[in-house]
Amino acid sequence: AGAETVKRAVELDVASRFQESLVCYQEGIDLLLQVVKATTDEAKKHRYRQKISDFTFLSDGKYHKQIRIEENATGFGYEKLFHQYLTEIVSEVWVEDPYIRQLYNFLRFCEMLVKGPCKVKTIHLLTSYDGGGRSQQITALEEIKQSLSNYGVTLNIDFSASIHDREIRFNNGWIIKIGRGLDYFKKPKGCFSIGYCDFDLRPCRETTVDVFHTKHIKKV
Q: In total, how many domains does the chain have?
């Protein structure tokens, strides 16, 4: 299965479909790594490691994509932005954002991670304290943490007074930087307004999304 996935990655690479090829390379290499761990034959291990090394070289290109979200644009819910990068091998997520204030947005992001197809086990949140609503912020985050634990997901929460940049990272190598962080949606006019529940229908504030990929291959 790993070899077939990497073969597909090469085909996508040749077709200049670089984003899809990087996802396939990562998945194929991860599958081959699992084979190596389960193999006791040293000769086979050596051959598999050589193949992984070759495929890693092929997938070692840099990738950068920029998405511009216009003022009042719709159709940019979290699934639209993130789902293609949340492959089955994603188990750990880092969210760094100094202004996690609209906590329902963070909750919706966590819900997306729980639904899969990724198998997230740990979410790391680094943010700053809300000066005017610190107590309410901590209470809400603790409630989200408890709720996630019911789904087998650990939420680690840390606070920093010096954090500035906004960044979301997945442990399959994808990095997404959003100018406004997760809070790029406009507030709905009311609880019964279109877009209140479905973020794809909610108007956005103007922002820029930068997507990167970095080589993230475990040593064996």
A: 2
